[in-house]
Amino acid sequence: MEFLKIINQNFLGVELSQYLFFFLLILFAILFNSFIANFIVNRLKVFVKKTGNKIDDSLFNALIPPCKLLPLVIVFFMISLAFDKNSNLGFYFVKINNSFATIFVFWFMHRLLIPFSIFFVKLENTLSKALVAWIINAIKYLIIFLGVAALLETWGIKVGPVIAGLGLLGVAVALGAQDLFKNLISGIMILMEKRFQIGDVIKVPGHTEGTVEQIGFRSTLIRTFDSTPITLPNYIFAEAPILNFSKREFRRINWLIGLEYNSKLDQIKNFTNSLSQYIENSKDFTVNDNFKSFIRLDKFNDSSIDILVYCFTSTNDWEEYLFIKEKLAIFIKEKVEETNLNFAFPSQSVYIENFENKINEKTS
């Protein structure tokens, strides 16, 4: 009986039994939030399927985290109704409920960007992959900023005067963060001019060479061919010439084939003609007015007659390029043997005179 009297006592206009009930509701909402969130999302998924609309599961999976907060929003809404809004405790419960509701709404919007980012992918052909990623990240940060601003407004903190008060501080920070803004502007120019994109193989003279993995607000991540990641500030790309190997239409082969000096002219002509026909008739090579091939006797070197092999492969892919180059090297080797030619190698001729004979000649 004493226990019943205690729990039936009023505290700030509400019986203690109701406080206990509210505590159990909060505990239930915390312990079973995952179960409730999955239940809501699954019911929504079933409803959408009944309407005949086809929506990817990634949309529903993105809604699960914010839906875990929904039970707390409902519980605190029920609690706020039980208290007098004019009382201190009722005032704070209303603020807490409004805070949870605000977090839920903006978190829900933030998570929706994950599946809806698929629609932004269609802009990659018009803009670029990196620029689309920037737009998505900018929207995410904007939602976070607006969410924080709305949360502060809920507690009576005006965001406008705070931002205005930070204006003078912003000027001081801007003076000390000139490099940050310089890198930011340079990064935007990189994306707008499309000098390179994610996945391109580039060379920055004096800095590095590798594959672009990420173009950030301040810096760009490049992974070298030995898998070492290197981060360069964006302003470097605005000032340095960039060699974008991925933008090449074709890959070039530029060789000098050295033949021995005892090679006959007919043999050399037969070799160069066969090599020219092979390149012109093969689909592995591109030969036109813009990309010509040259198989010519180039020069008489110290120990060889040099034949120039200059042509362009029909691909920009590195692996296929190596395969085509290997086939060409094998063909050259076969033709050299077929025409009874020999590859030259660096050599010197040394003439030795008989020293004793010279002595005899002088003394006689």
Order of helices and strands: HEEHHHHHHHHEEEEHEEHEEEHH
State the helical fraction. Answer: 55-70%
- Provide mean pLDDT, rounded: 77
In terms of DSSP E residues, the strand content is: 15-25%
Number of individual domains: 3
Low-pLDDT regions: 1-9
Rg over alpha carbons:
38 Å
Secondary-structure class: alpha+beta
Number of helices: 13
Main β-sheet description:
5 strands, antiparallel
State the oligomer: single chain
Which strands sit side by side, in order, in the main sheet? 6-5-4-3-7
Shape: elongated
Calculate the terminal CA-CA distance, rounded to whole Å. Answer: 149 Å
How would you characterize the overall build of this protein?
- Helix content is 58%, strand content 15%.
- It folds into 3 domains: 169 residues, no CATH class; 53 residues, SH3 type barrels (Roll); 87 residues, Alpha-Beta Plaits, CATH 3.30.70.100.
- Helix 2 packs antiparallel against helix 5, helix 5 packs antiparallel against helix 6 and helix 6 runs antiparallel to helix 7.
- The termini are far apart.
- A hairpin with a 2-residue loop joins strand 1 and strand 2.
- The chain has 13 helices and 11 strands.
- By secondary structure, it is α+β, with helices and mostly antiparallel strands.
- The longest helix has 34 residues.
- The strands form 3 sheets. Strands 6-5-4-3-7 form a 5-stranded antiparallel sheet. Strands 8, 9, 10 and 11 form a 4-stranded antiparallel sheet that branches. A two-stranded antiparallel ribbon has the order 1-2.
